[in-house]
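Mods, move this if it's the wrong board.
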Amino acid sequence: MLALFFVENNLPWLDELPNQSDFLAWFQRHKRPAPADSTVRLLRRAWSVMRAQSAIHNECPWPSLDLRKPRLQLEAADVIGTFAANPLKRLLDTLLHDGAHVAAVQVPDMIVSHEAGLIAALAAAVPPAIQALTESGRTDLRPAVYQLKLSDLGQLAVSPALALARPTGRLRFERRATMPNVKRATQTTPDQGNALALPDASLILDQEQT
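Not the wrong board. Structure tokens:
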């Protein structure tokens, strides 16, 4: 990705490296699948190696960039949105899927206008979201769901990291068979060989790439 950025911007020398903001703008226009912060970390790591070998002497002009926390908050928002009622669902849809400028304008206004309803909807959506995550094995997202606050959504809406930290796919729930049910199906239908009718017994969480 870095090589493509250098080629497309005709950058033969490191001392001509544009500002990080220029790279992030290019990154958003091209909708690259890799996280922007990991690309910045790669450049900074390579720069550090070159400095250690005296191939270059100045500091890396790109500052560190860490999108892990806002990305985790947005994934939590996506999970909660599956179980949210309006007006929270509408707010989350705006935050996750509309343009960053739209979210920056509409989300703070919705929070001010519907604060009580949003707080109640968030409190109601968290327990089923936690249960679904537990049943699907995605326990890594439970802390982020527990900790997500209405104020976090407002901060994300006006953050320049919003467009960069949004999940690249949609989190969705599907019914699948658990291993005990597979075992029971195997024991009760030995004559069917590999053609097992698996019951819809549990929820798992899939990452659907777009």
